[in-house]
Design brief:
This protein is of the alpha/beta class and 363 residues long. It has 10 helices and 16 strands. The longest helix has 19 residues. The structure holds nicotinamide-adenine-dinucleotide (NAD).
Length: 363
């Protein structure tokens, strides 16, 4: 890929102005690396709502309308419903724009390949944003583990409880496309939220050689099944094993400024352990990171553990990257395919009764 870094503010457009715009926008506000020049959404209500943030930006009902306008664009922040990602992104490359795409990138490898091929054909860059890799407690967790403080890693555990009460409002229109995804076998806990957990696993300990999974389901209202209880285990190429349990607390209230996810990451070493107590929601009201070694617990009280800050920092990383073209993109399109492979291996294993599946063998 040949990429020429920008020596002026990047001219950016937002494509999709729905729920998650509220967090992605934080990377753009007050950022001299970027100039927001266009806002695109078919919803008049959304366009009017977001225009207040960017009074000088032009508004459009579709990416095609933006392209036809002749307005100069360098990069697009893609916040489309997941089922629209592949066709939408291929069109953006045809228009000649770089793309920062929300996760999950798409549902299958053929769609991912279409996006990668389109990027290559047009000499444009595909990034699949992963805000969890910018969440300060998780970054500190990784740093502590790498420092050797808890000793050689013996294994780790991730936990996700989808709770039914609390948090911010999610528009009914978001549930419509999530429901489509569920019907295609790409559930909201294993695939949509799970994308983040799969990402953090690969980011922490590298490539995965075997996955064993048992994907369950629970009918929460007639006709709507959520993909829990689910248990997933895997082994990295370096021999470290991970376990991830996904459960539902349908009637559980969870205090959260965002989604009601009660999440944990706990890494056990030969000498101690380190645990991130929460991420999206305000589950355990203790310091977000604790480290136990030799009978003593150390707590981190001053980390930026507001989940929204991870969006700000992930987006800033991308907008800076466009000015340097150097360093990890977290994630490049190709790296994001490894996350997709992990997810697909989970389904393949579960379908086969929990047998071991190598993500690299998925076709
Ligand atoms: N990183 C995270 O933690 C996180 C959290 C939530 C959502 N997401 C991802 O962000 C994406 C968007 O999710 P959301 O919750 O904001 O969805 P949403 O349904 O709230 O918003 C989607 C917006 O896209 C608009 N839209 C639909 N078709 C369009 C088109 N052709 N062109 C332009 N705009 C169009 C809709 O009108 C809507 O305003 C999804 O891929 C989702 O998985 C990521």
């Amino acid at each position: 890929m040949s990429f020429t870094p920008y020596d002026r503010p990047v001219r950016a457009a937002f494509l999709g102005l729905g729920r998650i715009y509220d967090l992605n926008v934080r990377a753009y506000v007050g950022n001299p690396d970027v100039e927001v020049v266009a806002l695109v959404d078919p919803s008049e209500e959304r366009r009017a709502q977001r225009q207040g943030d960017w009074p000088d930006a032009k508004v459009f009902t579709s990416a095609a309308e933006l392209a036809a306008s002749g307005l100069e664009i360098d990069a697009v922040e893609v916040l489309l419903p997941t089922p629209l990602h592949t066709d939408g992104v291929v069109d953006l490359f045809d228009y000649g724009w770089h793309v920062n795409l929300q996760k999950p990138m798409c549902d299958d490898l053929a769609s991912a390949q279409r996006m990668l091929d389109a990027a290559r054909a047009k000499g444009r860059v595909l990034r699949v944003m992963e805000n969890y890799l910018f969440y300060e407690p998780l970054r500190k967790l990784k740093e502590i583990v790498q420092s050797g403080e808890i000793g050689e890693v013996s294994g780790y555990h991730m936990k996700m409880v989808g709770s039914g009460r609390g948090g911010w409002d999610v528009p009914a229109s978001s549930y419509e496309w999530q429901f489509q995804q569920m019907q295609r076998g790409r559930g909201i806990l294993v695939f949509d939220d799970g994308w983040h957990k799969a990402s953090t696993a690969i980011w922490l300990f590298g490539p995965i050689k075997e996955v064993r999974a048992w994907v369950g389901r629970t009918e929460v209202v007639p006709g709507v099944e959520i993909d829990a209880p689910t248990t997933i285990t895997w082994e990295h190429q370096n021999g470290i094993r991970g376990v991830w349990d996904i459960t539902l607390g349908v009637d559980m209230y969870l205090r959260s400024d965002y989604y009601t996810n009660d999440e944990r990451w706990e890494i056990t070493g030969r000498k101690g352990y380190a645990r991130v107590n929460r991420c999206t929601g305000r589950g355990i009201q203790q310091p977000s990171l604790e480290v136990y070694v030799d009978g003593e617990m150390r707590s981190y009280h001053a980390l930026d553990d507001d989940w929204a800050s991870s969006f700000r920092d992930s987006g800033r990383h991308w907008l800076r990257w466009l000015h340097t073209g150097e360093g990890p993109m977290l994630w490049s399109g190709n790296e994001a395919v490894n996350v997709l492979r992990f997810a697909l291996a989970i389904y393949a294993s579960s379908t086969a009764g929990g047998t071991g599946v190598n993500p690299a063998s998925i076709e």
